[in-house]
Amino acid sequence: MADSGGIQQGSPAIGAAGSVPAAPGAGGTEGSGAAGGSARIAVKKAQLRSAPRPKKLEKLGVYSSCKAEGACKCNGWKSQNPPPTPPRTDQQSNAVNLQEPCRSCSHTLGDHVTHLENVSEEEINRLLGIVLDVEYLYTCVHKEEDADTKQVYFSLFKLLRKSILQMGKPMLEAQESPPFEKPSIEQGVNNFVQYKFSHLPSKERQTIMELAKMFLNQINYWQLETPSQRRQRVPTDDAAGYKANYTRWLCYCNVPQFCDSLPRYETTQIFGRTLLRSVFTVMRKQLLEQARQEKDKLPPEKRTLILTHFPKFLSMLEEEVYSHSSPIWSQDFLAGATGGQIPIHTGNTHLHSTSPVSVDPSTCGSVSPARKTVLESNPVGEKRKPSEPLPHEENKRPRVVGDIPLDLINEVMATITDPAAVPETSLLSAHSARDEAARLEERRGVIEFHVIGNSLNQKPNKRILMWLVGLQNVFSHQLPRMPKEYITRLVFDPKHKTLSLIKDGRVIGGICFRMFPSQGFTEIVFCAVTSNEQVKGYGTHLMNHLKEYHIKHEILNFLTYADEYAIGYFKKQGFSKDIKVPKSKYVGYIKDYEGATLMGCELNPSIPYTEFSVIIKKQKEIIKKLIERKQAQIRKVYPGLSCFKEGVRQIPIESIPGIRTILRSHQNAWPFMEPVKKTEAPGYYQVIRFPMDLKTMSERLKSRYYTTRKLFMADMQRIFTNCREYNPPESEYYKCANLLEKFFYTKIKEAGLIEK
Hints:
Blueprint: H1 36-49, H2 53-61, H3 109-112, H4 121-143, H5 147-166, H6 185-197, H7 202-220, H8 227-233, H9 239-254, H10 267-270, H11 273-293, H12 300-322, H13 361-364, H14 406-417, H15 436-443, E1 447-452, H16 462-478, H17 484-491, E2 496-503, E3 506-516, E4 521-529, H18 538-552, E5 557-562, H19 567-572, H20 583-586, E6 597-602, H21 612-634, H22 659-662, H23 684-687, H24 694-702, H25 709-726, H26 732-750
Parallel strand pairs: 4-5
Antiparallel strand pairs: 1-2, 2-3, 3-4, 5-6
Protein name: histone acetyltransferase
GO biological process, one term: positive regulation of transcription by RNA polymerase II
EC number: 2.3.1.48
């Protein structure tokens, strides 16, 4: 393993499935950090199990009662010459003498281990493993400062000590055995994925599954706070219940990660919602904060997943964790029976200022970011010119200089701008934006958007009045549960305006709203598109035009009360339950309606909402082109070596074409680019005595250190061997080592440096 690129503190590196938590009892002292404790124990066990049998008997004799005649009460042999503390690693171990007397009872070592004479080597090794676990727990007991944790360590210490004396298997004595709650955390999260995301395409669903696995992995390696720490942080919490779960977690999940003679369970498989509720808020906050602080250290392939998708995933899961009516925690959960799929189209929808919002299905079925034009707000409905710029276009952010050359960006942009270089996207294609059809219709002049409203100060405009009547008809027809008189009053109210969608001179949809400039927000009232014009992207395009209209008028917040049918639509349009407007700003201006959900949307003045999907499409094309160019560089074929045919017996390694770049550019080389940092992998240099990495090898190549190919290949092999020795087989680093090793030897064979 090389740089961990992850996040330490209370959790393993986000996305690193093979991370290991702090050793129990470390408590911030030496050995607390990732894998130091467990790695050292594993090394010691391997060394002891490979020792001669007399040495093993000497170790077991220390924990074996005396079997000499006369009913000796000595419970463990003690050497006349105890080893120095701490033991010296460079000191040669003396030969074991089974006749050496015990310092306590004077009987020989052989008298203490007579019961082990006919025991198999396998059983001896098992007992030795328990011995080392006992010694480790003894250290933990003396180092641990928390009383509750110390008590658990001491109980486990006595249990393992008894197992050695009785030559039995450690069995935890408890009133309950795992699992402690059903459904488990793992099952609940799986139900959550099925409940919320089963409707997604397979590729997007796979991304959600990766996030779910990542989250479960974090819980399995999460270090719970002690009961005393929790009492200080949450005095009103169920202290007794948390302490019981904490004790179970130590005994069945945490300590067995280091003391493998104890049976080990995954936290997510034996605990349920109760434990998850007690850790979720703190865990979510720490994970997201650490991700933001350590984002530059995250592997590139994990960065987008963790920084963009993971926060949204956690927010949605949090609602289900703390909800009293969430179906995912039912043992009888069935996705089909509990509404496991979120419908792509919501039901009837209507919006108004004094009752909850329901959205018209027309707007729900056609939602997506969209295209150009901001609208004028005059009551006569003058159409905005398409060429009119956004008010904030002059204040665009300066370009952030990155590692991609500007000339390369311009070159790629030129190919993207060329219509011949951009593949045509069918409007029915899965890759096309949902508002693309509406945007094209607007460009061809088929549809128009106008902000209109009634006026008591100006002479009535016949066309505007006809459009207002048309809007009243559309809202009344599409929102049958709303009284017609109520709709008419709001549509013709001079304080309200309506963004109208006009096609062939007639109204086919609109959004009615009321602006509160002094309070900094606008209230959405009605939203609907006539039934025979639905599923064409009009709902999304309407909302995007409304956003740009408000950006022009420097109102950057929408508020609306939504009923159960409308929540899905507004979420797609960027609304959420996290209200950015201070409560003092809107209380008294909009009526609080029982049974409805207040939702808000904060606008970003830098985003051209009606062009957003076009921008995203162009960005995808740019990234695609950059990836293709990078892959072309990686796949570059260097000329073969012909010098051996001419009689040359050996050449300097650095003279092989491409040898310096081919490994560093491989997709699985990222963990091995630089030396491992002690701060990110505590204990690494105690386990790995001869570290190696690609940066060091590159420097050796430049200095002509590799006089023979054997030296070069030995250093490369050391990288792979070190990684597999330090990391568990299921870790990402272990897998990268195997893949890069396979790639390396393939290239070496192609170069003729070893026989195929």
